[in-house]
Specification:
Blueprint (H helix, E strand, L loop, with lengths): L20 E6 L7 H7 L3 E3 L2 E3 L7 E4 L8 H12 L3 E5 H6 L6 E5 H6 L11 E5 L5 H4 L7 E6 L10 H14 L6 E6 L6 H16 L6 E5 L5 H14 L8 E4 L10 H12 L6 E5 L5 H4 L5 E7 L2 E6 L2 E8 H14 L11
Parallel strand pairs: 1-4, 1-10, 4-5, 5-6, 6-7, 7-8, 8-9, 9-10, 11-12, 12-13
Antiparallel strand pairs: 2-3, 13-14, 14-15
Helix pairs in contact: 6-7, 7-8
Bound molecules: iron/sulfur cluster (SF4).
Length: 348
C-alpha cells in the first residue's frame, strides 16, 4: 500500500520545498543576532535582509516566543515570515504572546482535548503525531486543515520502532486520502556521537524518504552545532535523491591501482566545485573499473597513467593525459564548456 508520493498534489504553501524540506529548531538566543541566524539558515543576505534560495532552510521551530516587547527579536522573525519561511511556535506560546502569521504546533493531546479550537480562525496548524496513537485520535486529522504533520515519536522510546510507527501513520493517511506533507522530526538525546546521529537519521528517516514516505526533516540535538544539523539534513535529502543543493560526487574506494592521492585530489576538486547543484563529478583512481562505476556522472576525472589524468563527459573520454597539476583547472574548463558552471556566490 503505497501511500503518498513526494511532490504530487501536496500543497506546500511556501513554507516547505516540493523536493524535500529542511526544518531547524531555533533558540531565543539565536534571534539576538539576526544576521548570524540568517546565515545559519543559509539564507542569502541582500543589504542585511534575508532571502530564500535552493539551499535555505524552509521553516523553523521555536520552542519559545520572544516577549511581546522584544521588538528586535520579533522583527527578525517577521523578516523570516516575510520571505515565506515558516515559523512554528507551540500552541501555549502563541496563545499568550501571539506572533502574527506564525504557524502553531499542536500535539496529539491538544488535538484530542480540542485545545486547538482556541486558536483564531485561519491559523495555520502543524500537527505533531507519534504514529502509534489510537485510530480515534488520528481520526481527528480528517476534520482539520493542517499545513504539515511532524512525525514525532521520541527517539529514546525503545519499545516502539520509529520506522514502524511512521509506516502505520503513512498507511493511515493513504487509506483515508489525507494528503498532508509529513516531516520526520527526530529529537536526539544529548551526548549522541555525530556519526551515530547521521546513521540514525539515515536509518530512521532516510529509509522512509527513499520509499517516497515523507517530505522533509527536522533534526534536533541540543548539544550539536546548528550547521552540522542543517548540513546533515540537506545531505540526507540529497542522498535520498530528493533535493540537490550541492554537487554530487562519485568516487572509487581506491586500491593498489590508484594512480594519484585520491583523498587529496578529491578535497581539491570539492573545494572548487562544491557549489554546483545538479552536476555530478566522478573521481576515479584508474581506468580499470572507472567507466562502469562512474556511469551516472556528468564529468569524470580519471587516473590514466602515473601523473596523468583523463577527463570524461559521461562515459566518453574527451581529454587524455593531462598533467596532474593542470587537471583540476581543465575539469573546471570542461564544466564551463558544457554550460554547467556558475561562479560561486559572493559573500556579502
Ligand atoms: S577505479 Fe581503479 S583505483 Fe579505483 S578502486 Fe577501482 S581499480 Fe582501484
Amino acid at each position: 500500500n503505497v501511500i503518498k508520493t513526494q511532490g504530487e498534489e501536496v500543497d506546500y504553501r511556501g513554507v516547505l520545498h516540493r523536493d524535500g524540506s529542511v526544518l531547524m529548531s531555533v533558540s531565543l538566543n539565536q534571534l539576538k543576532t539576526p544576521e548570524l541566524l540568517y546565515k545559519s539558515l543559509a539564507a542569502k543576505l541582500v543589504v542585511g535582509m534575508p532571502f530564500k534560495d535552493l539551499a535555505t532552510v524552509d521553516s523553523i521551530l521555536l520552542r519559545q516566543l520572544p516577549p511581546v516587547d522584544d521588538n528586535d527579536s520579533r522583527l527578525a522573525l517577521k523578516r523570516l515570515i516575510d520571505v515565506s519561511m515558516g515559523v512554528i511556535t507551540p500552541l501555549s506560546e502563541q496563545l499568550t504572546k501571539p506572533l502574527p502569521n506564525a504557524m502553531v504546533l499542536v500535539n496529539s493531546k491538544e488535538l484530542s482535548t480540542g485545545a486547538y479550537k482556541l486558536l483564531p480562525e485561519g491559523t495555520r496548524m502543524v500537527v505533531s503525531v507519534r504514529g502509534d496513537e489510537p485510530y480515534e485520535v488520528l481520526d481527528i486529522l480528517k476534520g482539520i486543515d493542517a499545513t504539515m504533520l511532524l512525525h514525532d515519536l521520541p527517539f529514546s522510546e525503545d519499545k516502539v520502532s520509529r520506522v514502524h510507527a511512521a509506516r502505520r501513520l503513512f498507511e493511515y493517511l493513504g487509506d483515508n486520502s489525507l494528503n498532508f506533507p509529513v516531516i520526520h522530526h527526530i529529537q536526539f538525546p544529548s551526548g549522541i556521537h555525530r556519526d551515530d546521529l547521521v546513521i540514525a537519521a539515515g536509518t530512521n528517516a532516510g529509509a522512509l524518504l527513499v520509499d517516497g514516505l515523507g517530505d522533509g526533516l527536522l533534526l534536533e540535538a541540543a548539544d550539536k552545532d546548528f550547521d552540522f544539523l542543517r548540513n546533515t539534513s540537506f545531505n540526507l535529502l540529497q542522498g535520498c535523491r530528493m533535493r540537490n543543493t550541492k554537487t554530487e560526487y562519485v568516487s572509487c574506494p581506491s586500491c593498489g591501482r590508484t594512480l594519484f592521492d585520491l583523498q587529496e585530489i578529491s578535497a581539491q576538486i570539492r573545494e572548487k566545485t562544491s557549489h554546483l547543484p545538479g552536476v555530478s563529478i566522478a573521481i576515479m583512481g584508474c581506468i580499470v573499473n572507472g567507466p562502469g562505476e562512474m556511469a551516472d556522472a556528468d564529468f569524470g576525472y580519471v587516473g590514466g597513467a602515473p601523473g596523468k589524468i583523463d577527463l570524461y563527459v559521461g562515459k566518453t573520454v574527451v581529454k587524455r593525459a593531462i598533467e596532474m597539476e593542470h587537471a583540476t583547472d581543465a575539469l573546471i574548463q570542461l564544466i564551463k564548456d558544457h554550460g554547467r558552471w556558475v561562479d560561486p556566490p559572493a559573500e556579502e
